Amino acid sequence: MRHFLDFEKPVAELEAKIEELRRMTDPGGLNIAEEVVQLSDKAERQLRSLYGKLSPWQKTQVARHPERPKARDVIAGLITDFTPLAGDRAFGEDAAIVAGPGRFKGAPVMVIAIEKGWDLDSRLKHNFGSPRPEGYRKARRLIEMAGRFGLPILSFVDTSGAYPGIDAEARGQAEAIARGIDACLAAPVPFISTIIGEGGSGGAIAIAAADVVLMFEHAIYSVISPEGCAAILWEDRANAAQAAEAMKITAQDLKRLGIIDRIVAEPLGGAHRDKDAAIAALGAAIAETLPGLAALAPEALRAKRREKFLAIGQALQA
Fold this sequence. Notes:
Elements: H1 9-23, H2 32-51, H3 56-63, H4 71-78, E1 79-80, E2 97-104, E3 107-114, H5 120-125, H6 133-149, E4 153-159, H7 166-170, H8 173-186, E5 191-200, H9 201-205, E6 212-216, E7 220-222, H10 226-233, H11 240-247, H12 251-257, E8 262-264, H13 275-294, H14 298-317
Parallel strand pairs: 3-4, 4-5, 5-6, 5-7, 6-8
Antiparallel strand pairs: 1-2, 2-3
Helix pairs in contact: 1-2, 3-11, 4-13, 6-8, 10-11
């Protein structure tokens, strides 16, 4: 059964009625097919109206939808011969970051992704998509490996933020994130990052300081979660919607501010309604972007990447 968000209640009621009509075994002379078509058209119009004017808080809910494509779905849909590699060669393995070589449209690439999990067991295994220091150190190790072997890097971000536990801080969480960002900026190969769901804080940018940053239409990208911002500014998480509005966390706001480079359109009603179509659109965007980056020399890539992020800081200060 499809999971509906609170603001989707009108659509949920229409789709429930459609399902009920389809299950009817005794139409009693009614033209069920015609009624279903009319209700389906009405539901689509309602969905189009709702998703045409989503607030930042509603987009946050869509970005967190439990049925939204996860990293494993994107990798399965876009990458062949994917071979996950484990460990940071210093402390241990962190399943929140799934990374390794594979092929995108037949060409070798390095994949770095944050996995939230799709059911309780997998969410626990992947720590709900909140990496620990060893996860970021693993990502840095593979980014550096990609540079040595000339592999373009594709990263897929979906995290509420890095794990904030005492054990993570004791093992150098901030240092691991900082070195991850440094590795991204220093990579001598093309680097494309995509925000597929949530892009939370330094936990996201540690694998997203890329040549080109793509973002799904209803994803969010921010320095802190709306709830966290509300707790700090208003001392009340109930002000999360107000915080989301002020923080400019949507793809549309971030494109306008120059934080991201391209918005990838989602199917009507969000990527969770048609995962295959959403992932195919992302694959097309990456395929259009990669050749232009591949034509640049390593030093040119690094210089343009540095200029890109310096320009963001200057634009936001203006």
